[in-house]
Amino acid sequence: MATAPAPGTRTVDREEIRSKLLSLVASYLEQPVTDIRSDGKLVDYGLDSIFALTLCGDVEDEYGIEVKSTLAWDHPTVDAITEYVYEALTAEA
């Protein structure tokens, strides 16, 4: 029998992180999420510094972690950012 997580803890799921990031990117680009590949380079989708900083802020707000302003440049795909966020969240656990 599965037990519920303790209050204040968060279950971390890579696919949920990836899905949220894909939704954010699609929203910024005003494109359907189905048009965004998780392994596609964000710069190829038109990533600019404003988009990159907005993504950093949204990641910090959503996951409660601090990220460098170079997140999107250091981790240039949704898959790479997903792994970064996942690792940061599981390291805190």
From TrEMBL:
<protein>
    <submittedName>
        <fullName>Acyl carrier protein</fullName>
    </submittedName>
</protein>
<dbReference type="Pfam" id="PF00550">
    <property type="entry name" value="PP-binding"/>
</dbReference>
<keyword id="KW-0597">Phosphoprotein</keyword>
<dbReference type="InterPro" id="IPR036736">
    <property type="entry name" value="ACP-like_sf"/>
</dbReference>
<dbReference type="InterPro" id="IPR009081">
    <property type="entry name" value="PP-bd_ACP"/>
</dbReference>
<keyword id="KW-0596">Phosphopantetheine</keyword>
<dbReference type="InterPro" id="IPR020806">
    <property type="entry name" value="PKS_PP-bd"/>
</dbReference>
<feature type="domain" description="Carrier">
    <location>
        <begin position="12"/>
        <end position="89"/>
    </location>
</feature>
